[in-house]
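hiii, so i know i said id send this last week but things got crazy w the move. better late than never?? heres the sequnce for the chain we talked about at the cafe, plus the structure i predicted for it. fair warning i was half asleep when i ran it
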Amino acid sequence: MKSLFKSFSIVFTFLLFITIQLFPQSKKPLDHTVYDDWAAVKNETISNNGEYVAFEVNPQKGDGELMLFRNATAFDHFQRGYKAAFPPHSNFVVYKIKPQFDTIRAKKLEKVKKDKLPKDSLGIFVFESQVRIKYPKLKAFKVAEKEADWLAILLEMPEPKEVENDTINDEEKSDKQKKKKGKKDKEQLLVLLNPVTGDSVSFENVTKFALAKNGLSCAFIQIKKDSIDSVMVSVFDTKKRIVKNLLDTEGYAENIAIDEHGRQIVYTFSTDTAKVKAYDLFYVNLKNDRPQSVLNADEKKISDDWTVSENGKIYFDEKGNELYFGVIPRPETESKDTLTDDEKVSLDIWNWKDPILQPHQLKEVKEEKKRSYMAVFFPEKNRTIQLGDENLKRIRIDTKAEGNLSLAFNENPYRKLLSWESSRYQDVYIIDRETGVRNLILEKATSSVSFSPEQNFVAWYNIADSSWNVYNLNTSLSTTVTSDIGFNFYNEWNDVPDEAYPYGMAGWTENEKLVIYDRFDLWLIDPSRKEKAKMLTAGEGRKNNMKLRYKKLDKKERYLPSTIMLSAFNEVNKQAGYFSLDMKNKDLTKLVLGDFYYRKILKAEEVDQLIWKRESFVNYPNLYVSGMDFSDPVQLSDANPQQADYNWGTTELVEWVSFNGDSLQGILVKPENFDPNKKYPMLVYFYERSSSRLNVYYTPKPIRSVINWTYYASNGYLVFIPDIVYRTGYPGPSGYDCVVSGTQAMCERYAFIDRNNLGIQGQSWGGYQTAYIITQTDLYKAAMAGAPVSNMTSAYGGIRWGTGLSRAFQYEEGQSRIGATLWERRDLYILNSPLFFADQINTPLLMMHNDTDGAVPWYQGIEFFNALRRLEKPVWLLVYNKAPHNLKRRADMEDLTIRMQQFFDFYLKGAAEPVWMKTGVPAVEKGKEFGLETDN
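okay and structure toks below
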């Protein structure tokens, strides 16, 4: 595909040459050859002391590099480095190293299997000594998070060479081969290293390891060389430099964990030889080094019919007082398979009483087979309690919690509703972890349930009456806490036929006050109701149409600090930035605000130093460093200086009134070399509301499904992106009202729009809207619809194969916005279905609908294509094989990028018609001919 992609770049280069000769310009338009080298800044991180910053600069194809800055000055760089991490003392950097891109590509051409491809390496750079260390064949690594400078590195061991021994008979050889095969994935080397001091120790045949957060201990499991059924569990003390052996016996150990202080170890162990094993869990306090079975605790509330799951997560709470693990019913003894494959029945039985549909169940089979239910062990009390079961699959554990209570959730009573309701319901319990006693506090709750840090209150949003409520654990009473506030706490822009969800909450203060959001501002709520609700932001958000939201900078915090940082976004002019809020004095201070979009702000743990990205339509989101007030920022990255050589684009906010009388906003994108005296073809793209993306940067790259705004502006198109508001029952007409009214308003307002050359494009829900709109108007000269629903009557009863869910909920309460069942309002299902009005279409249509689309059934595109084909309407359907709803394979994306431009260029610019459009590509030529060339 690459050579094909490059070959057609010659065509574009030739056309570009002609364009330059006829219309001299200082900058080149973007073409399809620029993508590979357009870089992205990724995975930025800052050291605890704020002195060092690391980030990747990666091209779309090829080898990237890891950049290292010290005190905002370039310090070093590492070829193919990625995912860097700093230790607690900020004295070195550790990072992964990818194999060379060309090497991997060459191996793939040789059909080398994935597990045989070259592996990542690990790189370490020690700042003071300038020492560089590299380890090949990396499997995993972990850096201590505090106190020590140690890290654990798991490497793939070299495969031993085969040595033939003629004295071994064939049966013995076969047995050895089986053992070797069983050991193959377990031959790994664990290296424990302090790069600063140079101390290191290594252990062979390690399968799993766990490094304490303080780096003072590392526990690990080893498979003994003399037998594949023998294991050792050991712990290395990095301070004393000694190894303790905790287990050395026949059996299987699968998982291991260590508390963050490095004082307690736990591992799963089984002597079962069956494929499905029953595991026990052994706890070791390193003060005495004596393993004890958690399932045989002095006080136990776990049935003998239950055992430890090898798939359950094992972890301690922050203080090391509680150990969490998963339990499952004891596996049944395996029965021998007595049937041949052709004697077996493969069958799915759909039963109307099933809580969830069979396709949904099948999607969950893998997860369900690995499902475990939470249990807790209290080491000091030698007590084990089972907390979860089939009715309490989800328990929310706060590892920093002081109390003994947790929230637990049961979704089982409402699983059947998933087929026709958008909301996800659950019963909410308070569970005492020390006793296992449960207390039901909420029935049929939705989301946004939060436990106060001191465990006196549970806050939740009641979607039925749009109110925030608090349950008081001391009085066992629930109270509505927002009924006397004259503002809405639900999404005021909600336009689906379902209850609106809340704007959310910022968190809890240290004195257990709740901070929640309305559309613009923050409110302080006293859950005891002794004090009235207080607006913390003094109405500044609402007065300035500014949505203010808490930005958490400290991952470890449990309470909202007295002074917090708020992100800000102006809903009218789309400016963004940050404010500081002193919650005690209700003092709101602007830090930075402008015609930009900000993303991924990170703070150094020990000092007031920030790194962040800032972008606009014309400015790539490069990385900056600054103090907490954003003043005097220093730009660290300059990812794409080549942009200055290309004709780019500009965005402006536009407004109009729809046919239905709604005041709407949209974006108009113009070429950078825009000339108001010229006429420009215009593409219209949309997906519900998009005007908030005014200041978003669009990297030139192959498309997954929708037009790249920058690319089309650079190549002489205008792009119009209108917002859409919806009326329940009329999603198609709503789209028509907003999109067509906006298009007409732009054409009437601006003489530079060539109203005879208008195109329209959308994907998924936007693809449906596109298909519907062209049944109602001939305004657009060409249309591209990706994965459109064309027939709501057949789509309604179908399956979203990506999840296995019924599609009905989308129409009754979700995005499709019909608001009724098919039998209640079949007229609306027909009215909104493009298929039933296919005979009214006069606009040439290009569709993409892929054969493994998990969101919109493939047959929807087929129904529409067949109808238009029979009606002799110009229509093309692109089906990328084994591709999802939006393309993922780069080769497919490159192909679609070219075809979509060729389609629009042909109809809107008068370019030559490519062969795939003119005559098609026969199936016998599939994979050999692509039809991208023209006859000219």
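btw Residues 2-22 form the longest helix (21 residues). thought thatd interest u
miss u guys!!
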